[in-house]
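Title: Prediction job returns without error message
Component: structure pipeline
Severity: low
Priority: P3
Assignee: unassigned

Description:
Job completed but the reporter wants confirmation the result is attached to the right record. Sequence as submitted:
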Amino acid sequence: MTKKERTKQFGLVGKNIDYSFSRTYFKNKFDSENKVGYSYVNFDLQSIDNIKEIFNSSVTPSGLNVTIPYKKTVIPYLDQLTKDASTIQAVNTIVIESSGKTVGHNTDHVGFQKALLEHNQKIPKQALILGTGGASGAVQYVLDQIKCKYQFVSRTPQKNQLAYGDLTKEIIEKVDLIVNTTPVGTFPNIEEAPPIPYEHLDSRHFLFDLIYNPEETRFLKEGKSRGSITCNGYSMLVYQAEKSWELWNQ
């Protein structure tokens, strides 16, 4: 195999992504698996419209990951969506075929489901999903699959969604899973947390935060201090990244 044939580029599309998990993860993966000529680049875009420049570049990547804030807005720029990405209406993985055709996938739901069931053996019955952005659709998809009822909580609630101010003791006591899909509490703003009534949490609750930096957010600390099971987003990220890698190498 020639050096040219072995050279492959992958990357992450997002905004203000210097902190990114993906670049370090895949660099280490390429090193450990002796993938000579493989690289992973951060494409920090000020507008999703700039993705056209990546697709039309002389060095077109073989695959891309997509993160905040472009998981939804990237969709019109793709040639095709898989069924799950279409259902979720968010894309976090793009496969670029040799013909140049771009196919949008969602591996977030794979990562979330594996991490959820790994850290909590009991299937949750009722949940609150904090946030309605690109990652929330993957969580909703999984909860539908495992037949867990849920309600969305938002700062700007739409029909059939709750505002944070609507969260009463009765609502908190009725749910057994609370998932934070918002960026609230991400480094460096580690003292911030979604404004839920933490005083009503106890050992019946499982708090899952999609954030992985810091390792333990204030949201998780508040739950842990009251006996709740907690899980950050790191294992979900690893599982979704491995699924992306699988798709890029089919």
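Comment from assignee: result matches the submitted record. The first strand starts at residue 8 and ends at 14.
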